[in-house]
């Protein structure tokens, strides 16, 4: 049987063994030194290890504190853009299947916190002491549940009695009869789309205004006299104008079926004049009466524009290039539903504390 060569001579082995023994002896003496032993066992040396182990639990304390009965109402509202009672309502209506209450409430809190602040997932993850994939999943699942469970109840076309009240209120501010809604379209920043779709999502107007390339999706909304959304159309291409978005909406299809017989939805000059869409005069020389009419149309239009301002101001995720994919439109729909819930429950809009840009 052949013998394998070890690659060194006997003299080299002797030198290696001697060096190894001196190294081991020096290491033992180093550790035995009182100064070194004190340093290794000091709180400072172990603080990093302790911090790593406790960082998750310490971050969870933030949510536990927020969820406690003694947490100040104004601080809770600042963190989640809604009152404690509204948060309780949303949790109770979404948790119809009786999921584990503490975990479920935390998932709802993660979702609402991200929608409210627009913080990236890494910051929300750190705040709640949860992995980023868990936070992402919580947001998508809760937003989907909001659209499925809460939208049919809180974002719908008014019934006959409500329409009668809406007509009266709009007529009181404009002297224009039979107005059942104020309509406007806004744009939501979108992540850069695939190369083949870039032109479709390219928002020329916003790009020129901001001085940087902008990709968006559209949100068309109709609101009542209180700024409550009664109809939304979400997700059409940012390159489309108001007229094109309207023609793609279910609202337009319902109107063609005589859904709006004898009533008006008021829009801006970007919409076409139709037998159910009332828009301002759009020419240079106007008579005194036409100018006065445009002013009254503007007062109705202001209701929709201010509703969108509060929507974006309360849910700051709608102002930034979010980490969601273009197909995650449940997020935008959930914000519209939550807007309605907060408005209906009288959760005031804190314009002096929240971002309105």
TrEMBL record:
Report the Pfam families cross-referenced here. Answer: DDE_Tnp_4 (PF13359)
Going by the UniProt record, its keywords in alphabetical order are: Hydrolase, Metal-binding, Nuclease, Nucleus
Gene Ontology molecular-function annotations: hydrolase activity; metal ion binding; nuclease activity
Q: Which InterPro entries match?
A: HARBI1-like, HARBI1_dom
Which cofactors, if any, are listed as required?
Answer: a divalent metal cation
Recorded GO cellular component terms are: nucleus
Q: Where in the cell is it found?
A: Nucleus
* Source domain of life: Eukaryota
The residue ranges of the DDE Tnp4 domain are 185-340
By sequence similarity, the record places it as follows:
Belongs to the HARBI1 family.
- What is the protein name stated in its UniProt record? WRKY transcription factor 50-like
Origin organism is Hibiscus syriacus
């Amino acid at each position: 049987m052949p013998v394998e060569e070890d690659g060194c001579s006997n003299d080299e082995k002797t030198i290696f063994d001697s060096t190894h023994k001196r190294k081991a002896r020096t290491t033992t003496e180093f550790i035995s030194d009182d100064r070194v032993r004190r340093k290794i066992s000091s709180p400072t040396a172990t603080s990093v290890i302790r911090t790593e182990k406790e960082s998750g639990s310490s971050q969870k304390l933030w949510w536990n504190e927020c969820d406690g009965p003694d947490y100040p109402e104004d601080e809770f509202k600042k963190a989640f853009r809604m009152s404690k009672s509204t948060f309780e309502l949303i949790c109770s209506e979404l948790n119809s299947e009786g999921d584990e209450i503490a975990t479920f409430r935390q998932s709802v809190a993660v979702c609402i916190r991200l929608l409210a602040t627009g913080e990236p997932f890494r910051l929300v993850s750190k705040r709640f002491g949860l992995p980023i994939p868990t936070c992402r999943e919580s947001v998508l699942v809760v937003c989907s549940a909001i659209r499925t469970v809460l939208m049919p109840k809180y974002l719908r076309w008014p019934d006959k009695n409500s329409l009668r009240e809406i007509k009266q209120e709009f007529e009181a501010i404009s002297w224009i009869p039979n107005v059942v809604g104020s309509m406007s379209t806004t744009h939501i920043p979108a992540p850069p789309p695939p190369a083949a779709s870039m032109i479709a999502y390219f928002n020329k107007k916003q790009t020129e205004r901001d001085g940087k390339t902008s990709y968006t999706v559209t949100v068309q909304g109709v609101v009542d006299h209180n700024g409550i959304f009664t109809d939304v159309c979400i997700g059409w291409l940012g390159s489309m104008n108001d007229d094109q978005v309207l023609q793609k909406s279910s609202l337009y299809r319902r109107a063609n079926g005589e859904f709006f017989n004898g009533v008006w939805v008021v829009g801006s000059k970007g919409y076409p004049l139709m037998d159910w869409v009332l828009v301002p005069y759009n020419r240079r020389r106007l008579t005194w009466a036409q100018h006065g009419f445009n002013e009254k149309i503007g007062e109705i239009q202001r209701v929709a524009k201010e509703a969108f301002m509060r929507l974006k101001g309360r849910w700051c995720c709608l102002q930034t290039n979010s980490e969601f994919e273009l197909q995650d439109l449940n997020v935008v729909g959930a914000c519209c539903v939550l807007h309605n819930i907060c408005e209906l429950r009288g959760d005031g809009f804190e314009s002096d504390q929240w971002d309105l840009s």
